[in-house]
Amino acid sequence: MLVIDGVGKSYADGIQVLDDIRLEMAPGIFGLLGPNGAGKSTLMKVIVGLLAPDSGRATFNGIDVTKDPYTVRKWLGYLPQDFGVYPDATARELLEHLAVLKGLRDVRHRSKAVDRLLEETNLTPMKHRKLGTYSGGMLQRFGIAQALLGDPKLIVVDEPTAGLDPEERYRLLNLLAGLRQKSVILLSTHLVQDVEALCSRMAILAQGKILSEDNPADALAKLRGRLYRTHIEPEELVAFRSKYQVVSSRLVEGALSLHFLSNNDEGLQTFERAEPTLEDFYFFELDTARAALAAKAK
What we know:
This protein is an alpha/beta fold. The chain folds into two domains: 2-218, 3-Layer(aba) Sandwich (Rossmann fold); 221-297. Helices cover 34% and strands 28% of the residues. It has helices spanning 40-47, 69-73, 91-101, 107-120, 136-147, 166-177, 192-198, 216-221, 237-241, 278-297; strands at 2-10, 16-25, 28-33, 55-60, 63-64, 76-79, 154-158, 184-189, 201-206, 209-214, 227-232, 245-252, 255-261, 272-273. The strands form three sheets. Strands 6-7-8-3-9-10 form a six-stranded mixed β-sheet, sandwiched between helices.
């Protein structure tokens, strides 16, 4: 069990990056959604023991990650958003080295574990190539492989599908799904589709605060029956926003396809109701938080 209990963090310039974060995660896949700059990566660093919080604490199976980081790291697999490699080492060489550091001392067992992860991340054909020759997507797959060394019980992955093509993204999601019964997996992302595909619980983080925590089905239920859809021309958007709360929009053959909310049914007879998506809920929570912040600033 991963417990985040009242974690707060501010940087030297006084900006509060995390504000009283409280979350609990059992074995399974937990999605942390938020825009860039929301504080997701900072929270990841607190959870893995790389950054001490100013207040509160994070514990894994009752062990404080700040006070006893070395014990927690024995169970940890971590893929940060940005990571470095030795460019002159091959994928297999560096995975072997990292496996030793993870405690895989038996040569035969270690070799099998490395080969399995290379296969699962589709790196076997290029395992003897130097990492300095890898593309961004290939390096991301290597990062995933190193995070899964040693059968970790706590897996923290920050934007894991960044740079992956659709086929490799699907491969990774399947790989993580296969680990959900035995590990606590925290998936930090700004891609709603990844959370929708994998997560049994989710939270939305914005401006350093948790806006909501739910399972995806209950999140969608909050918008069901309140959402409408229409198509308008792009130049009509400003006028439309003055009447309705636009939740999401996308271009379809040059026109805007909108999902929107209304506080009453007046004048809505010409519109059809829309089935909410997780993306609708995500944007709704972000818009609500921005509106509350703007009202507070006045």
